[in-house]
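Quick question, first post here. What does this chain look like in 3D?
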Amino acid sequence: MSKPKRVTNGIKYNLTKRSDSRYYQLSFTDPRPADPSKAQIRLSTESDTLAGAEAFADDYLMKYVPGQPKNKLTVADLIAATLQHKANHQKRDHAEKSRNWELRLRDKFGSWDHRDLTADVLEDYKSWCLGAPVDEHTSALRRRWTPIQQTEVERTDKRGNTYSMKLDVIAKATINLDLALLSKAYRDANRKGLITYRPWIRKYGKKELPRRTGTVALTEFDAVMALDPPAPVWLRGMIHIYNDDGNRASELRKVKVGAYQSIPTPEGEAGLLQLDASITKTQHGRTVPLSKAAHELVKQCIVGKGADEYLFTRDDLGKGERQVLDFRKTWVATLLRAGITRKILLHDFRRTSVGDFEEAQVSRGTGMSISGHIDPGVYNDYNVQNKKRLIEAMRTKEAWQEEQRRLMSGLPQAPAMEELMAAMQLQIEEGLQREGKLSAQVEVLKSVIKSMEISTDLAH
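> Answer (accepted):
Ran it through. Tokens below.
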């Protein structure tokens, strides 16, 4: 497919799409080439639609400066500059990047002009690394590369069952490292003004895990708080604040005693925690109110501590008083003591708290200011308890539909109409018969009354 020549910025160009290529190619002639042998320029538009290719061509040619350098920049030149920069700054990944370049990339792309490395070529490289089979749709370039065969290994699962699986000779994570090296080399050269062309380098994305929707039931929370002997005071205090305010565990661990404030109110003393922007994930400071139970636990945690000491500390490990960091083992042991065998993450309290704010009809702005959310969309995602209302709405709709079906079932259908008509005809006939019997009885009564009247007259 091709597009008739167009002119942008005084440069005529063509857009073509080969049968073995996914994207349109832009080709044009430099009007003032520094080297006549390199006047013809061809590059990928990274677009599979004609409209997208035209937009790329217009944007590229409007920024294009005629006059190409006599010595072309190869892919090896760009990579060499990037690796030298890593060596000069003693980057930890310098050795690994250099090894990957020598093992796989140099012999394939090292001598190429940097403009010849397109997205199509990189897709071929990824399929080659994964050992994909060669078929009639495989490009001519990839056919020239020696194929890599997948290896088959045996694995054993947790139940002792043996199964076989195919392993990629080159893992996707390693391929991403190769693509990252190429991407950085082109990006660095572009920032230095050495090149204007950069290929679209698409890495393999991470496997998207299902979003967790766990929450903590009120009975489970009460079971943890009612343990005998009780859990450590620092653990109960942190769990109470997690459950009440939905704060992040990473933020609460960094709170110091100086962040605590006590404010008198008509109902009694109230407690607040003033979180500094330096310890919050969003870099926004906020004030966290404490429930009465959490306030009592916090007051126990600050006994004997200075303002610069951490609020939540522990000394139950035989290493002296120190900041609470990772307490997952303690948390799991506490759940088992409370008779809770299912997995409860600390972040489940955050979802629970947001849902409780919504159920209690706390305004969304107030709830977000307490939990530390700055995006209403994310706040709504944490409100997983909203599903309960959705389920209740569906139950209400189902009940309404059943009621409609019941009402509809009371109306006669076509087969039932005939039966109804027959029953009505029978009732009519029975009524006529009853009317006939009644009329006969009436006539007898009339005759009796008339005879009585006659006898009365004779008596007079």
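The first strand starts at residue 2 and ends at 8.
The first helix runs from residue 50 to 63.
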